[in-house]
Specification:
Elements: H1 2-16, H2 18-37, H3 42-57, H4 60-69, H5 72-99, H6 102-120, H7 127-132, H8 136-145, H9 150-170, H10 179-197, H11 200-205, H12 207-213, H13 220-245, H14 248-272, H15 285-298, H16 310-313, H17 319-333, H18 347-350
């Protein structure tokens, strides 16, 4: 369902607006978790997960909304906060899904979605979308609600006017064949491919399974929580600094090298002691520490930059379409990712 949603999200939020697109996202995810929380049969859970997965394809609406409502100086920092928020959400999932029954955990997640839906009702619509639809007065009011000064409002309205004029005069479908479009698209698609092949999302979403298969005597849930907290701290500090103050290329190189070395070290350790029983391996903390180093290293660039660079590389006419295609590609490359993967497993035997 997520790949389908990633294809329709562009035309959908372009038609109904960024705000309503986010409202639909929260409502969709809330309904999905509500179905899971109330499930009495296995197929109820399957339906709930399908509903939630459709919402995942709609998540790009948040990126577009932030990019269109913040100032140029705020954009890099605020977009990097998306990764922090995502990381915090995964960490919260470990706490809630790890210590509460799966039905209660699903109910908590559904409640959070409905709460955000209620909050989203009071935020202004994207000024850029309103201006694009010809409602200049509403666009001005939206900018004022977002805290722009009178001078800043006039300046941004002028930018929107010039942007709208450029889009209406120059956009042609043949623009996708121009080197300034297809080259960035290939670069970003490759970046997303390498990002998925690095295992950053696999570890993030299946940390419990990964820790268990390391063959350590440490509690997998406790280690997962430590890793999640480390990821949050890194994203809030070094990750945001690297995003805002360090060049994209050096940040990616350093992040990739550190991830490679840490994974290589963990792999060598596991190979050397592959026949040693659990609890008898020397220095059992070594692969755990290397795994944490890998997660921290990825938070410097590899797990962040592919989602931030579209607005920097693509021409204005096609930025949104390519953002949609990148989400589609990323979701398909990581299609084994699932909703609620950190809820307690075997629900019918553990918590029915």
């Amino acid at each position: 369902m997520a790949p389908i949603a990633s294809l329709v999200v562009g035309p959908t939020i372009d038609l109904i607006g960024r705000k309503k697109g986010l409202l639909f996202f929260y409502l969709d995810m809330g309904v999905g978790f509500s179905i899971i929380a109330c499930a009495t049969e296995v197929w109820h859970i399957c339906v709930g997960r399908c509903v939630c997965s459709f919402a995942i394809g709609m998540e790009v609406a948040a990126v577009v909304y932030i990019a269109e409502t913040c100032t140029k100086k705020q954009r890099s920092v605020l977009l990097s906060i998306l990764t922090v928020s995502f990381t915090f959400g995964v960490s919260l999932t470990y706490f809630v899904g790890g210590y509460l029954p799966w039905k209660v955990a699903s109910g908590v997640f559904a409640t959070g979605c409905y709460l955000y839906f209620f909050i989203q009702l009071f935020v202004p619509e994207s000024p850029a979308w309103l201006y694009k639809k010809g409602d200049v007065d509403a666009s001005k009011r939206s900018l004022q609600r977002l805290g722009r000064s009178p001078e800043g409002t006039d300046r941004e309205l002028e930018i929107l006017r010039l942007s709208a004029k450029e889009l209406s005069e120059k956009f042609r479908f043949k623009v996708f064949l121009e080197p300034t479009v297809w080259k960035p698209f290939l670069i970003m698609s490759t970046f997303h491919l390498l990002q998925n092949l690095s295992g950053v999302f696999h570890i993030m979403n299946y940390t419990l399974d990964f820790i268990e298969r390391l063959g350590t005597s440490y509690d997998p849930l406790s280690i997962s929580i430590i890793i999640a907290v480390s990821r949050v701290i890194t994203c809030c500090t070094a990750g945001m600094y690297a995003t805002a103050s360090v060049g994209r290329k050096p940040a990616t190189v350093v992040s990739s090298i550190l991830m490679t070395l840490s994974f290589l070290g963990a792999g060598v350790y596991e190979y050397v002691f592959r026949d040693t029983p659990v609890g008898q391996k020397p220095f059992e903390w070594v692969p755990i520490v290397l795994l944490i180093v890998n997660i921290i290293s990825g938070s410097l660039a590899v797990s962040i930059l592919p989602w931030l660079m579209s607005s920097e590389l693509f021409p204005l006419q096609v930025t949104f379409l390519h953002k949609t295609m990148e989400v589609f590609i990323n979701i398909n490359l990581g299609s084994e990712r699932s909703i609620g993967q950190n809820l307690r497993r075997e629900p019918w035997t553990s918590h029915t």
